[in-house]
Amino acid sequence: MNDFIAWFQHNGGVLDTLMMGITDFPGSGRGAVALQEYTCSSENHTIFTLPRSLILSTQTSTLPSVFGLEAWKKHKLHKGWVGLILCMMWEEAQGSQGRWITYLASLPTQFDTPMFWSDEELQELQGTAVVDKIGRDEAERDYHEKLAPAIKTRPDLFPSDQIDTWYTLHRYHVTGSRILSRSFNVERWEGEVEQDAEDVPTEDSKEDSRANTSIGSAMDVDDPGDGEEADIAMVPMADILNARYDSVNAKLFYEKDHLHMVTTKPIDAGEQIFNTYGDLPNSDLLRRYGHVDLVPCPHLKGALGNPQDVVEIRADLVVNVVCGDASNDETYRQRIDWWLDEGGDDVFIIDTDPIIPAALTSLTRLLLLTQEEWEKTLEKGRPPKSKFDLQVSPLLRRIIETRLTGYQSPDLEVDTKLLASESLTLNKRHAIVVRLGEKQILAGVLDTLRLMEAALSDVGSNESKGKRRVVSGGTAGETKSKKARH
User: Fold this and answer.
1) Where are the beta strands (DSSP E) in 63-204?
2) Longest Cα pair distance anywhere in the chain, in angstroms?
3) Contact, 202 vs 64, CB < 8 A?
4) Cα–Cα dist 332/240, whole Å
5) What is the pLDDT of residue 44?
6) What's the pLDDT score for residue 408?
7) Other CB atoms within 10 Å distance of the CB of residue 443
8) Model confidence pLDDT, tens digit, residues 138-187
């Protein structure tokens, strides 16, 4: 890494080499280490600074301008990540003449993410939230429909004898994975205009704002999602810092002309310096970064897991369970279309607090309405309340049980025993950790349903004795649901 550090400093970067070093950490690879103790008095210490001109993006690479902005748009290189991928491939192809060649040479060329798994390995992830979000098919479609046709139009920029070396599909996947695992959303600064200027209004920069790590899927980042105009950018030095659940001790901030990595708490000498990806479930950590987090979890009574794990339940599964063979009947299709038109969710999220989302219960009740009740609902323009009763209880149980059958085995003990084996490959171990975490949540939901059903039985018993009690279904306040993400 000496060449990289020298390149960083030569190009205007400032690194506190007395305080930070770069080393390999067992189990997490290369990262940043505190060489001296960052005491309370040195909190908010600037570890390193780099000029904005040193970040690599479609704004700083010269390729879009020499290619021609109109042609860039014509080939749709200004949408998604395909343009940045091409810029990085082209910059690397420049060899010693490329401005970022030393930085690009320091980036990984191999990844443990599912994008590079075999079909057999991907079978281990069956049923998890990972499989439908890998995006391999979408990435390859962009390569064949956007990037490959674009480079053929400019042999002066992309000589034919370089195509099989620098612009292959495999290198496209590697470059995309570098972006997915290491890029940042960096807000555009004053005076900078994005290539698609007529579609995106420019805004002034905000001084001392925080730069967020990129957390989108590899081909769906047209909108940074926070209401601010931002560029997906590679930030040299900043991407060396690893992340771990609840361990962040440094954050990247930016000003008009510079970006700064600053400590946020005291750090002991020898301790790893962590930035943050956001506290993500293991399904997202594996898909984006190729690792999983295992820490003591309250919901597992102190056993190892990820407190941010979630399970996704698709609305079409709910429809199939509730409606059965009649799910395609016009009666149900009208209700489903109305639900979606009214902003209803088509994916429901359950986290480690194993409570059925209110929206899931509401959709279930919507599908159970009589025709008369359905017509009244249309008049009111509101979906049914998420009331938990003996009508929806068995259906909610069947939904969760059906969701469990999506895995290779719904039995938690099978995966627990497999995980204890020392002969597992890294990819298989990661897959087991992800699916076991999801199945533990679903098992917790089934336990919650049993308790709620018992409470309903108590209500029935008390009412038969002339007593009335109000039982909360435990779902009304929950809004863990969303639109499908890919």
Assistant:
1) 183-187
2) 88
3) no
4) 51
5) 85
6) 87
7) 15
8) 999 999 999 999 999 999 999 999 999 999 999 999 999 999 999 998 88
